[in-house]
Design brief:
There is one protein chain. The protein is built from nine helices and 17 strands. The chain is an alpha/beta fold and 416 residues long. It has two domains: 293 residues, FAD/NAD(P)-binding domain, CATH 3.50.50; 92 residues, no CATH class. Strands 1, 2, 5, 6, 7, 8 and 17 form a seven-stranded mixed β-sheet that branches. A four-stranded antiparallel β-sheet has the order 11-12-10-13. It has a two-stranded antiparallel ribbon with strand order 3-4.
Length: 416
């Protein structure tokens, strides 16, 4: 492959105590929790809205129990309930919510906490010396610009800061195959005379058995959100991610054509999520790697900062159907804990991570990646970062037991 050398001076435009990279649920939780402790926080997000898969990805569904996740997540739930934009709580059950309202809620929670937002900004590179990331290079509407921070929290889902720094990461199974992506598209029920033609060149599925894995759930009165499995692509490779988006749109049109023709569904196409849903990008190697064996034994940790309770949801990455890596009887896990050491990058002295790039094996991540857990790991990373700033030390100088105790005092259910 040909290479070029590139050098230029760019403005160091921003300075903060903490920089959070990625504005999904984990990133917003990290930023808000840290800012509430009186430190200066900048949150960098590549899209024009916060929420990640929950909003731009169109996944309006909280999987796993939503209670006992801590102050930040409780605040999100309270706002959604106030707006009547979420289904009532049933212990242990998923909760469908209005993802359009959530993007506004997350924005206002961040601004109310004093977080500075940089939207439409993407991480381009990091400057690292002896395991310390001193600056990050961003690219946005202003062009290339730099940001310096004492602590960074990688919530990109693809471990971007760690990868660009040359830190150890993990991706996929033993063959590198990632958990498959999913595309969300939306339809609205209309009268027969108001039906709009389906895109004419759509692929044709003849039987239900021919369809890719398809899940339909409610999306408000007369509307539905439809999730399609899109396997065999790599979210960390630009060309592959591009191909995934193209394939997802083609599948959506073909599945909609089948639902209209074969099942008589009076559905008009209402749109697609702006980004395909990525289940697994890159996991960052941490001071501890959470394993599927630890989940199955309901492992507890003295330094626990989050809990998980969702089944091992590892869809087979090699086919289109409703197939799983594990048989149904092997997917159950009891409630388990995630320690702070899974949120501390092993190769750096100022990099934390949260969300779906925490330090875990693939099957453990298939459970721990759901949004209520991401909110907990984000809150923990934000709190640890803020404590490091106040103590003028490394993130490893923080007493993780104190992190746990403070999270517990703010509503996180971290039993032993």
């Amino acid at each position: 492959m040909k290479e070029i050398a590139y050098s230029r001076k760019i403005p160091l435009r921003y300075e903060a105590d903490i920089c959070v990279l990625g504005g999904g649920i984990a990133g917003v939780a990290a930023a808000v929790t840290a800012a509430r402790k009186g430190v200066k926080v900048i949150l960098v997000e590549r899209f024009g809205m916060l929420g990640g898969n929950a909003t731009s990805g169109g996944v309006g569904n909280f999987s796993g129990d939503t209670m006992g996740r801590g102050r930040f997540f409780d605040d999100c739930l309270a706002k959604l309930e106030q707006l009547r934009a979420i289904v009532p709580y049933v212990p242990g059950k998923e909760r469908v919510f209005n993802h359009h309202y959530l993007e506004i809620i997350l924005q206002e929670l961040a601004l109310d906490a004093g977080v500075k937002l940089l939207l439409h900004s993407r991480l381009a590179d990091v400057i690292v010396n002896d395991g310390h990331i001193s600056e990050v290079v961003l690219c946005g509407a202003s062009g290339m610009e730099a940001l310096s921070a004492q602590v960074l929290i990688d919530c990109t889902g693809d471990g971007c800061a760690a990868r660009y720094a040359g830190f150890r990461t993990m991706k996929g199974d033993t063959h590198g195959a990632q958990l498959p992506m999913s595309e969300m598209y939306f339809v609205r029920e209309v009268a027969q005379e108001d039906l709009i033609a389906v895109y004419p060149d759509s692929k044709r599925y003849e039987t239900a058995a021919d369809l890719p894995m398809t899940t339909v759930w409610p999306d408000g009165p007369g509307s539905h959100a439809i999730k399609l499995k899109v396997p065999r692509f790599d979210s960390t490779v630009t060309a592959s991610l591009t191909d995934a988006e193209i394939e997802a749109r083609r599948r959506a049109m073909a599945v909609m054509e089948y639902h209209r023709r074969a099942e008589g569904r009076p559905w008009n196409f209402d749109g697609m999520s702006p980004i395909i849903g990525i289940r697994e990008g890159v996991r960052i190697r941490g001071d501890h790697v959470l394993t599927v064996e630890e989940l199955r034994e309901g492992k507890t940790f003295d330094t626990a900062v989050a809990y998980g309770d969702y089944p091992l949801d590892g869809h087979d990455p090699r086919d289109d159907g409703r197939t799983y890596i594990l048989p149904k009887e092997e997917r159950y896990v009891p409630r388990y804990q995630i320690p702070m050491e899974c949120l501390v990058a092993a190769d750096g002295d100022n990099l934390l991570m949260a969300g779906r790039c925490i330090s875990a094996d693939q099957l453990a991540l298939s459970s721990a990646r759901v949004m209520p857990v991401c909110a907990m790991t984000g809150s923990a990373a934000g709190l640890c970062a803020a404590m490091a700033i106040h103590q003028s030390g490394s993130v490893r100088d923080v007493d993780y037991l104190s992190v746990r105790q403070m999270l517990t005092s703010e509503g996180a259910d971290l039993w032993v």
